[in-house]
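Notebook, p. 212. Picked up where the previous page left off. The plan for this session was modest: take the two constructs that came back from the sequencing core last week, fold each one, and keep the raw output in the notebook itself so nobody has to go hunting through shared drives later. Recording the first one now, exactly as returned: residue sequence, then the structure token string.
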Amino acid sequence: MGDGWTMRKMWVGAGAAAALGMGFVMLLVVGVYVVAGNLAGGAGGGAKKLAKGSVPAAYQPIVQKWGNLCPAINPALLAAQLYQESGFNPKARSAAAAQGIAQFIPGTWATHGIDGDGDGDRDVWDPADAIPSAASYDCSLASYVKDVPGDPTENMLASYNAGAYAVIKYQGVPPYKETQNYVKVITTLEKSFAAPTGRVDPSEQAAGAIAFAQKKLGTPYLWGGNGTADQGGRFDCSGLTKAAYESVGIELPRVANDQYNAGPHPRREELLPGDLVFFSDDLTNSRAIRHVGIYVGGGYMIDAPRTGAVIRFDRIDTPDYFGATRVTEDGAKALPTTV
């Protein structure tokens, strides 16, 4: 009796929520450009602070402190660089011999590594040294190109990628595709690590992503599922959100904790249909996120919850609610393919 009643209750609730969700879909389809106009110019000026949990708790105080070392950087920009370089992995090592959370090569570390925690050594593998060193190196590069016209942060990032000489020679970001892309990637990722200072612009692709997910309601969950034919069209949580946004031309990473970095983070009271909503047992660390769904309005999401369940509507207001991301095309493109 218990299981049958639970299933009936779930689908009655799902039916009511489906009507609610479809209403929001229609609102988005008809009015997304109006809403976008009303909310334009969301992020204002002022000192940037880190978004909730966007940097692992062990590193957040260091990033917040050293991210204010000079005017050319800020905590969110520094976090974006660390995420791009290593995914906050202090043991990361690249094929090019780059080491640690900030991926210094030995020659650069020898010149620019500092004793950030004042313990008497400079250890490239210690984030308490490597993160301050990354900030210090950024500021050194900014000082080299301080007389170059243009945006000082973009000139600093271009120097990081192509060298200060190239920035001075071209009097700004040099015409190298790789360098121009690096500047765009980091400045775009910065928005994912910054706590918004105003409302966040809505996604124009949100309605299509929701429509895709609604068509999958009732599909059994499959761990690792991507919805392929050999998997019977089944999904896990991040497989569903990836496929939903892929249907509207946005390529997301495969796992939920990387999907969190695909755009800025609206507050709970600012959620719009199409936002990704995330859940974690550690509310201080986005790298520990374990579940994701697509918000449809009214406090509900569509998600693929767990083995033995089906894709369905669930409430988002639970103790493990972590936060949300408003997916943007540029934000998704900026994410590293491996972290």
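Okay, moving on. Second construct, recorded in the same format:
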Amino acid sequence: MALALRSNDRSLSPEQEALRDEALRGFAAWPKTMSPKFFYDHRGSQLFELICQQPEYYPTRTEETILRLAAQDIAALAGRNASLVELGSGASRKIRLLLEALRPARYLGIDISREFLQASTRRLAADYRWLDVHALCADFSRPLKLPGDALGQRPLAFFPGSSIGNFDPDEARAFLRNLHQALPAGSGLLIGVDLVKDRQVLERAYNDHAGVTALFNLNLVERIRNELDSDIDPRSFQHRAFYNEAESRIEMHLISRQAQQVRIEDRVFDFAAGETLHTENSYKYTPSGFRDLAGSCGFASAAMWRDPAQLFSVHFLRRE
């Protein structure tokens, strides 16, 4: 239910306008929902970096190990003087492993968070003075037009961290098809994919003992309160994450601690006690299932690497 109230005039940046539009749409939906791409303001990006350091959160360290062991094979598949395009820019160890193994001619970082993108690409430019560094502030979940001067002839797109799992299957197809259209023929796509595994391992990873993932989830409410004209109170929500086996996905939610009303600009939204705001899905794949998905979008499998425990996979795909 939404009621009309008077709102104050305020000037919003394009990123804040996107957050407002998503919140107004998502809070009016049933069930209520928000896109996980709005986790990643500067503080959210910092919290995610901290999540990656938690002992329960296996994806980052496992993917790093795979990349370290496979780096020379990846470089051989990418070829000499490739351009490296990172979807979701960061000055992480993963991108540095690839930069050192590939020695690419150019690097293009793409991220929705302008502040974090600028900070991360500046660090990379300072640390790799031989590298031609470019930045593009964009929502890569939508159709992209990539700048030709940063691509070269055979770019390698890098989409780490199993971020593909944040899309539902139809969204994942749309993302891969959009990327297929944006990349020239012969391009590579190096992508991290989390694998189906034991429920307890998955649920521990998204409910770390230190509570960092809970802070990350609640940061979405902090953003709405701080950046929009809203009276939403982060203390009135709590984090919940669980594995939905039927859908093969981890779900993250914010649960309303009590019956409450939340105002955003001139609209008021009712939350029942225990009502959920669904903030993220993280789908898990089998290797063959992901290869089939990528193949239906015009990407052929060139190689795949897994860790010995088969927790995580990294795929090298070729754009046909």
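Notes on construct two before I forget. Residues 77 and 188 are 8 Å apart (CA to CA).
Flagging for discussion at group meeting.
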